[in-house]
Amino acid sequence: MSYFRAILLMVKDIIIDVVGSFADGKTTLVRALTSESTLRHSEEKKRGITIRLGYAHFLLYKCDKCSSFSRKEKCEICGGKAELFYRVSIIDSPGHKTLMTIMLSGAPLVDGAVLVISANNKCPQPQTEEHLEALKIIGVKNIVVAQTKVDVVGPDRAKESHNEITEFLSKNGFENVAIIPVFAAQNINIPELLQHVGKFEPHVHEEGGGAQMLVVRSFDINKPGEEIKNLRGGVLGGGLKSGSISVGDEIVIYPGVFVKNSWKQLKTTVKNIQSEFGREKAVNRGLMIGLETSLDPSLARRDNLAGSLVVKPDNLPIFKSKISLNYSPLVEKEKNQFKKSIQMNEVVLVNVLASKILGTVTAISGDKVTLNLGNSFLPYYKGDKAIISRKVENVWVLAGAGTIYD
Ligand code: ZN
After folding, report:
1. Of 39, 196, 259, 343, which sits 20 to 30 A from 300 (CA to CA)?
2. Residues 118-147: pLDDT tens digits?
3. How far, in Å, is the centroid of ligand 1 from the Cα of 56?
């Protein structure tokens, strides 16, 4: 094994979710972390030459001398020599519909989160709250808060905001989370924030899950009018929840295409794998990837296959239009927002893996709830988490989660 390959094997991949709105300063923060714009995607997509995934990313190094984390081989703290430690992919939410579905599906695609909370807004804002609830359900423990706009509000409000954030975190069971005031545009306290990201532990998934990739986007990378002999297959973009995928693997895509009143799964071969860091031969979870397949590229055009589940033929999921789960509601919300517990014949929104489907409650017995999904079919494995949202005044509100047992 070459020295370079050995080094690569020691480097770990993690995905962090940067949660917040543009108004909170999320875009500026991501730019400061990566020193490049998250809007890069649209520029390069126009050129449409290679697979561009559009995720922000950066390399994180660990100093041999002082053990600090920095973005350069020369330690940003002491100037010592630092070794590559993490390849970090950033997904930012909300912002992408399918990503939000996955975030709210209880699938552990991400390893940690940076919550961007602005000092000039009351904390929590509803979307931040929902997001933290989802992270809690998933079991993501690595969290750090970047408190922005501290310079705008003055010391009193900054302190008040700090207290609101602490209370919000502790109410949701997140104790001892660092709250770092950042001035992203000037790179102030970004190195401090990176010390916390460096300590994020990669999410450990249970063994035996097999390869499960959640598809966030899909594309046709061919130029219009390309000659058939030069055509490249459809590309699936997303991340692995478990297992691994290598170039040459056969894969099966769920739910597939709806033909003659039934779902037909798509079977294809992985031709090429690319991450934001370059070509990859084999990938595990912790990395946002693009799989070039031998699929007819028109099938993958314009995110047509977003929301799909990719597996290998030896690990096919259950595929049904009716599921039963052990359900536990978010008790406080049930008391305050929903007024009553989940009802027979109620229509709820179900998120499982990359799927988002409406279901009707057809049976309730203790904590067991059965849902009929109508014409939609859900690919899942026993033990998968389903996140349930209920409607309050025409808005879907995260209401609870359950484990699918049938
Ligand atoms: Zn150092």
Report:
1. 39
2. 999 999 988 888 888 888 888 889 999 999
3. 25
Residue ranges of E strands in 74-184: 82-93, 112-118, 142-148, 179-181
Domains with residue ranges and CATH for the chain = 3-197 (3.40.50.300), 212-316 (2.40.30.10), 319-404 (2.40.30.10)
Q: What is the CA radius of gyration of the chain?
A: 22
Q: What are the tens digits of pLDDT across the range 162-208?
A: 999 999 999 999 989 999 999 988 889 999 999 999 999 988 766 56
| H or E, element range at 395 | strand 395-404
Q: What is the pTM of this model?
A: 0.87
Residue 336 banded pLDDT, cuts 50, 70, 90: confident
pLDDT digits (tens, 9 = 90+) for 206-218: 656 799 999 988 9
Ligand 1 mean position, distance from CA 73 (Å): 10
Cα(88) to centroid of ligand 1, in Å? 20
Q: How many angstroms does the Cα of residue 89 sit away from the middle of ligand 1?
A: 23
CA of residue 84 to ligand 1 center, whole Å: 13
Å from CA of 35 to ligand 1 middle: 20
Distance 60 CA to ligand 1 centre (A): 13
DSSP letter for each residue of 177-219: --EEE-BGGGTBTHHHHHHHHHTPPPPPPPTT---EEEEEEEE
